[in-house]
Amino acid sequence: MRIAGKGLVDRQAPVSFRFDGHTYQGFAGDTLASALLANDIRVVARSFKYHRPRGVMGAGSEEANALVTIGSGAAQDPNVRATVQEIYEGLEARPQNCWPSLTVDLLSVNDLAAPFLGAGFYYKTFMWPRAFWEKLYEPVIRRSAGLGALSHQHNPDAYEKAFAFCDLLVIGGGPAGLIAALTAARAGADVILADEDSLFGGRLNGDVETVGGMPGAEWAQSIVDELEAMPNVRLMRRTTVTGAYDQGTYGALERVAHHLADRGGQPLECFWRIVARRAILCAGAIERPIAFRNNDRPGIMTASAVRTYLNRYGVAPGRRITLFANNDDAHRTARDLVDAGVHIAAVFDSRRDVPESNAYPIYRGAEVCNTSGRRGLESVTFRTASGEDKVETDCLAVSGGWNPSLHLTCHMNGRPQWSEAIQSFVPVEGMVPGLDTAGACRGTLTTHGALQEGVAAAQVALEALGIAFDKIDIPEAEDAPYRVSPLWAVAGKGRAWLDFQNDVTVKDVKQAAKENFASVEHMKRYTTQGMSPDQGKNSNVAALAVLADATGRGIPETGTTTFRPPFVPVSIAAMGAGAQGAGFAPQRFTTSHAASVERGAPMIEAGLWYRPSYFPAPGETTWRQSCDREVNMVRNAVGVCDVSTLGKIDIQGPDAGAFLDFVYTNMFSTLKVGRTRYGLMLREDGTVMDDGTTARLGETHFVMTTTTAAAGPVMRHLEYVHQCLCPELDVSMISVTEQWAQFAVAGPQSRALLNALVDEDINDDTWPFMGCGDIIIQGVRGRLFRISFSGEHAYEIAVPSRFGNGLFRELTARAEALGGGLYGMEALNVLRIEKGFITHAEIHGRVTAFDIGMERMVSQKKDCIGKTMSERPGLNGPEREQLVGLKPIGPVKQLTAGAHLFEKGAAPTRENAQGYTTSVGFSPTLDGFLGLGFLRNGRARHGEEVMMVDHLRNLTTRCKVCDPVFFDPEGGRVRG
Amino acid sequence: MRLTCPVCGERDRREFYYMGDAVALRRPDPEAGDAVWDDYLHNRDNPAGVTRDLWQHEGGCGAWIVVTRNTMTHEVLETALASDVKGSVG
Amino acid sequence: MRFSGWKVIKEGLTGNRGWSAHWRDAQPKPEYDMVIIGGGGHGLSTAYYLAKNHGMTNIAVLEKGYLGGGNVGRNTTIVRANYFLQGNSEFYSHSLKLWEGLEEDLNYNVMHSQRGLINLFHSDGQRDAFARRGNMMVNQGDDAILLDRDGVRKHLPYLDFEQTRFPIYGGLYHPRGGTARHDAVAWGYARGASDRGVDLVQNCEVTGIDIENGVVKGVQTTRGAIRAKKVGIIVAGRSGQVAAMAGRRLPIESHILQAFVTEGLKPVIDHVISFGMGHFYISQSDKGGLVFGGDLDFYASYAQRGNLPMKEHVMEAGMTLMPMIGKAKVLRSWGGIMDMTPDGSPIIDKMEGIDGLYIDCGWNYGGFKAVPASGWCMAHLMATDRPHEVAAKYRLDRFRTGIGIMDEEGTGSQHNLH
């Protein structure tokens, strides 16, 4: 019911919205919760387990009951707190976790079955028959569990992430936060003030207290106005600081556009990483309920929420309101309601010493012990020394006291301490380095105290920051005592809720204790108390108190569970912003990318790079046709392939040779200028890390190539070896992978192709096999390497990247004129398999130099990384699986990679497994499948027949073991 | 988490690559024997408290850094260039 | 007390007054035949199988906090047997078989759910590596099916097959893979061990190991000295500290692994999905929360909490793989301390040179699924002084000798590469 003349909502701006299929009206400034209450909607949700009707319980982000689904279609947003969602024109909200409807929910039958569904019942049953778990029990449990539903469609909304930096981050914009921010801002500090509400002011907006002689909300607005005008202040509305992390890093979720009908291109949410030199937590406190029988009916709310709805939104959540409290603070709710002309039916206070009023009946030493009302509260039963009685009421405002919102202080494992004075936990100094606390979140529950502490905390921060500040006047404000007397659960039969969201009752906690889940962590895990969307914000302290009582310990001894980030639920889309679609990782394109795409080449991922798989020619319908043609082209004419993705590292300095001797197994200091050498690199553990060629371009100048996959790790490794193991070597290195475009020109016609392009005469004397050097190609200074990964007479030619596209097109045209053309990754793979050249399919991290037959490349004349460990007994010997070639010899001619090898006739079991295949391909050159693989003691078994078994692809092939070099074993072609 | 690169200043953790215990700086002699090498490469004090470990400012200047750090609290006590530390270790 | 559906109904009708403690909280005795240090999943299962398989009941499990408070209570609950190296393959296969009979054996519903695990691959090379893995799984007698892209689409139609940075080529489907309710595993073993006479002692921190002339004599604890003929160290991330009490260094570094859970949602993900390109894995709990995780934070730590970069990376992986989860909201994130070995495989062995001292550690980030077989094999080792045949390769000296290194990821048998 809306109360005339009350509240901060804009009565001139009506807003219509839909809930559960009906259209309602609210005002700008309303939340969905306040607007529903204004329309007398009481049932807004169904509970998790028992499907009991539930209404709005609070007025903040900790809301336990009023979770709804917003929107529909792909953008449907489940589990949204109605207390946080601001209404806008056309907002569509729906109830969730109910079927067929909110009012008639068939699963509310669970409520009747409650005796069988107590804490942990599922651990004790559903075990027989075994097969029923996956087929029957689990599907039923899964369907009845869960709250809202995802749309099952790709997220259609935009989200963002950002960084921010400041001297001081003030978390929470209530009185403490506002004055802390003001103090620091006036001193000149860079300040960020973040508050999760749409309006700064905190409780000042929900109360009718005055600050400095002004209504609290007006005072708050005046401070906001001053802060907003300052260039060193950033005000972040609708921004919840969600986590405290190391070295002053905070996560924060800004709800950018959830309140807008038209987002105007803005993202829905932005996840911030705020780096703050200092921070002050001013997060306030959360009022806690009291557990009593049937304390979960719609219409039962926290006392402060009732007050907020009245004062901020001009809404009375009932017409005959009752109050149940154990502290003075809650009586302000009754006072405000009476002042607004709302009828107070009764006030029950568990204490004897209670503030007087002649506006409503007060029952001292009274406890509410039951409630009734099927779809909302109709009456409460209360108990005093003189017995039980009943009062009709449609709204019960409950206050069990306040729990400081100290959650962020616990994010680094700090443990808060118990305060007898406020009967709750309060933060201890230094729990998060650089974070101070002020106001209610540190247990100071008056406005005056909050203001005082806000100033003090800001001054502490400014001193730490070395920023001078002036004295600031603290405005006068309310300083009434809070006076709480503990009351957690009202004794009696029936179910009294602690965790409303997970339907955990006092009985459940007691039962857990009885079953020896007596540690607070065990109780939580057994009952699921505190594991619901509010993460125990409403229930932890009371549940702990009930557990302490049940186990006969005090609350401090019982301890508390750990608060962990995030403080409020954070969407995966916000923290994962930017990754949807292709944004997950950078895309790297070679200079020939466009030309390759133009020719219809399917581009495949190679690490972060894209490389052409094959280049389809007219009439070709399968990749194999293209691949076979490209292989033949290289073997018989000339092929061109972009190899720029290989890592290129420029290494210079007088000690470059010595450095390379240390990182490679073989010698490089002896390499002549103008020559290239194949090098093998080990990890310190003796396994092969990478291989590649390194060219000596000058006395003190080398260029190393790495495999595409290992380019980054090798660069890092080289810097590690240099800086950490041998900084005395005078050598420098830098990655030049992206500075050079490099193309392989391979095949019998390769020299002819190049000679037509360059001025110099390329012949076996000027460019012998493994020769290298600078070369001018059509006026551009490039580099030419006579190296081959195909076994053919071949070169790699490199030019600065800006010439890559032009050179690639030129090479392509000339190759085609010579009966050749482009070849892609598939052909490259077949060519290298024919030659027994290895890639990371073979050097997959577990193989040693011995395994690939390169143990003699580990020079005995010097030390190198990995040498000592490579000599361990387990890394050598006939037990090792060694690189072999495989050829099919039976009726089945196919080979597959990833199959296992067995002795002829052996059962294909793990015990009998002797090796596996790593790379296979159809060789058009040799007209058959060829395979590389590893076989136990394989080098000694050339000529033997083994069985290749691929269970997954249902293939068994008889194979002959052979040398891995299938084609041109003498290597004549590469020199020819 | 933030670390101070001695060259570039304070930076976010995501700019750094982590390698592990700074014991890696003390590479044994090749002939030191398998027990010494086993210890060097595999066995760790793995302290629950102050440790020194190696990081690289990979997303920045490329410097390898010895970070003195607390593994219980993630407090960073000191950072130094690995090449300087190695120089003083010998 | 035997648990059953009838018992739940009977208790429900009589006010649930008949339930009793799932396990006894024991006071430590001055002497035991064996002491297990660590009341996590592995320690509790070791005690259970010592009692059940070997008739050893004069034993105590000493836990410094509460039972099941370590990694068994903070993981992503995945149970699978999809290893491909000799040594791992037979061990995890054995473990999965134990899982399949666990509820009956323990009379405790650990909600082992064989909903199927799909490991996605994104290149021909990855497909071949997964084929090798799957073939070894079949060699071992376990189940594996190689799915192509359409095969994956049939199971997981909601993945992003069109826009994603790393297109899905296919997946390795392990139908017997799945999940279990992690806490219940610890409690079920605790109850089983306690019922067989094992003393479970909580809030009892071991502060020293008594060794005389190379022979274990007992332990010092915050609740007094306890004599024992044999002592097993089963403390996961704390292995280094406890081994140091025996003067030993271990090939272990402790690292943080974070995990995440969302609010309860109606059923949306029916499998366990693993996305290698993003180090991301996800399943949905029976309560409806999406449970997911990623890679290590990558720095040595005992803090049981992580930092933003890896959190964001994990969510980014989720968004590129399955953008339908964008509006699921993360409720909680936590970190476990992973006992990382150089090769990523565990250790179940005697402590060489100290009679009566045994160690079970190095579970890296895969310890949960190993809980049954780890306990089974550690119990076998402690009771018989011989390694169990499926755990014979989990030797401590493999790093020194290089014999039997099990580097499933192929990243090298050095620290911080896994």
UniProtKB/TrEMBL annotation, chain A:
Record keyword Kinase present: no
All copies of the GCVT N-terminal domain together span 593-862
Short name of one Pfam family? SO_alpha_A3
**Which residues are in the SoxA A3 domain?**
493-578
Record has Oxidoreductase as a keyword: yes
Which example biological process does GO assign this protein? tetrahydrofolate metabolic process
GO molecular-function terms, A-Z: sarcosine oxidase activity
Q: Which UniProt keywords apply?
A: Oxidoreductase
Family from the record: Belongs to the GcvT family.
Q: What is this protein called?
A: Sarcosine oxidase subunit alpha
Species per Swiss-Prot/TrEMBL record:
Shimia aestuarii
TrEMBL record, chain B:
Tell me where the signal peptide lies.
none
**What Pfam families does this protein's entry cite?**
SoxD
Q: Which Gene3D superfamilies match?
A: Folate-binding superfamily (3.30.2270.10)
Q: Which GO terms describe its molecular function?
A: sarcosine oxidase activity
The superkingdom listed in its UniProt entry is Bacteria
Listed GO biological process terms: tetrahydrofolate metabolic process
Q: What protein name is recorded for this chain?
A: Sarcosine oxidase subunit delta
Organism from which the protein derives: Shimia aestuarii
TrEMBL record, chain C:
Q: Which reaction does it catalyse?
A: sarcosine + (6S)-5,6,7,8-tetrahydrofolate + O2 = (6R)-5,10-methylene-5,6,7,8-tetrahydrofolate + glycine + H2O2; sarcosine + O2 + H2O = formaldehyde + glycine + H2O2
Q: Which is a GO BP term held by this UniProt record?
A: tetrahydrofolate metabolic process
Species classification: Bacteria, Pseudomonadati, Pseudomonadota, Alphaproteobacteria, Rhodobacterales
Pfam families per the UniProt record, alphabetical: DAO (PF01266)
The UniProt keywords, alphabetically, are:
Cytoplasm, FAD, Flavoprotein, FMN, Nucleotide-binding, Oxidoreductase
The answer, when asked if Cytoplasm is one of the entry's keywords, is: yes
What family does this belong to?
Answer: Belongs to the SoxB family.
Task: State the EC number(s).
Answer: 1.5.3.24
Protein species of origin? Shimia aestuarii
Protein name (Swiss-Prot/TrEMBL): Sarcosine oxidase subunit beta
Q: Does the keyword Oxidoreductase apply?
A: yes
Q: Which compartments is it annotated to reside in?
A: Cytoplasm
Question: Any one cellular component term from GO for this entry?
Answer: cytoplasm
Query: EC top class, in one word?
Result: oxidoreductase
| Rhodanese domain boundaries | 35-78
InterPro entries per the UniProt record, alphabetical:
FAD-dep_OxRdtase, FAD/NAD-bd_sf, Rhodanese-like_dom, SoxB
A GO molecular function held by the record:
sarcosine oxidase activity
PROSITE patterns attached to this UniProt entry: RHODANESE_3
Please give the cofactor(s) recorded in the UniProt entry for this protein: FAD; FMN
Query: Main localization of the protein?
Result: cytoplasm
**Domain of life per record:** Bacteria
